[in-house]
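Cross-posting from the chemistry board since nobody answered there.

I work mostly on the small-molecule side, so proteins are not my area. We synthesized guanosine-5'-triphosphate and want a rough idea of how it might sit in this target. Sequence and SMILES are below. Is it possible to get a predicted 3D structure of the two together?
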Amino acid sequence: MPIKDLLGKLKKPAEQEKPVMKVTMMGARGVGKTSVLTSMYYNMNKAMNKTNLHIVAKEGTKQILAGKVQNLKDMFFDDNDITDEVQSGIAGDKTVTTFEFDFGLTLKDINIGIELKDFPGEYVLSEPDIVKEYIDESNAIILAIDTPHLMEYDGKYNEAKNRTKVITEFFKETLNSESGEKLVMLVPLKCEKYLLENRMDEVGERVKSTYLELLKFLRDRDNKYGIEGKIACVLAPIFTLGEIKFDKFECNENGNVYEVKTGDLCFPQKAIYAYSKPGAEYKPKYCEQPLYYLLTFVSKQYDKLKKENVNVGWVKKFIKMFRLTPEINELFVEVQKFSFEKNQSEDGYRIFFGQGKV
Ligand SMILES: Nc1nc2c(ncn2[C@@H]2O[C@H](COP(=O)(O)OP(=O)(O)OP(=O)(O)O)[C@@H](O)[C@H]2O)c(=O)[nH]1
Ligand SMILES: [Mg+2]
C-alpha cells in the first residue's frame, strides 16, 4: 500500500471529519476574484485580532497569498501603469486554486475548515460540471461583478464582461429542488470611483436591474424551480485596493471608446485606473465582509437545523460532522457575538432576500 494511503488510514476519525465550510468564487475573467480573496485574508486577520477567533491560512495557501498581496501592493509604485486590458483568448488564471483556512477559537483547540475554490472566469463555460459539483457542496457562492463595465456608458459593456445572461442560465441549470440552502453574495468590485462619488446606492440599483432575472430565479417566489426560501442573497461591494479608482475606458481623439469585438460581444479595449489621491496606499475595505456573512449564515443554519432536525444535501453531512465535534457550539456562540460587525446598509450593502438567514 502506498505510504500516503497508509497515513490516510491512520488519521484519527475526528480529524478526517472536521467540518469544512465551502465557498465557490466565480465571475468573469480578470474581474479581480483572486485579488479579492487575497485582500480578504489580509482584512480578516486584522478584524479578528480584536476577538477570540482566529483564521489561519494553511501552508500552500499561505504562500499563494503572500505572493498575491505583494502583487497588489506593487500596483501602488508610482511608475506603474494601472490599466486593465482585454486579452482576447488569454485567461489570467487557467487553473482552479483552492484556498484553505483553519478557523476557530484562539484559546481552545476548536477549529473548522474554510475552503474557497477560485474558479477562472472561463470555467463556467469550459468546465461547467466541475463548477456545478462544487456549488452543490458549497455553503456560499460569491459572484464577482466588474463594476465599471456594469456602470459606464449605461451598461453598454456589461454583458461582454460580466456575462450576466450566461451566469443566470448557469445558476438555473445548477440549483434545483435537491439543492441545500445557500448564501449567494453578489460582489461588485473595482467600485472605488462610485464610493468616492457617493454613488454606491446607484451601483446597488444597477445590480438589481441588470441581475433581475437571476434574482427572481434565486428567490423563486412560486417555487417554480423548487428553491423557494432556500437562498439568501446579499449585495456586498468590496474595495479590493481602496485607493485606486476607475478613471476611463481608453478613447480615440474623437472621444469614442476603442473597442474589441469577439463574436457578438463588444469590449472596451483598455480600462484606465488612477490613484484616488497623491500618496495612495493599499487599503482594502470590506474584504472581510463575505466571511462575516458566511459565518453568520452557517451559524444560523446550524442553530435552526439543530432544532428542526432537517437532513438534506450538504446540511446532512454538515450536521453529522458537527455531532462528532459538539464543542463547535462554543465557536458559533462566539461567531454570533461578532456578527454585528456585518455591514448591512452602508456603502451599497443590502440584503436582497433571506433576511432571517444572515
Ligand atoms: N484597478 C483595480 N485593479 C484590480 C482590482 N482587483 C484586481 N485588479 C487587477 O486586475 C487584474 C485581474 O485580477 P485577478 O484578481 O487576477 O482577476 P481574476 O478574476 O482572478 O481573473 P481570472 O482568474 O483570470 O478569471 C490584475 O492585474 C489585478 O491586479 C481592483 O480592485 N482595482
Ligand atoms: Mg483568478
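Reply from a structural biologist on the board:
Welcome over. Reading the output above for you: Residues 6-15, 87-91 have pLDDT under 50 and may be disordered. The pocket of magnesium ion (ligand 2) is lined by residues 33-34, 92-93, 118, 120 (CB under 6 Å). Happy to explain the C-alpha cell format if needed.
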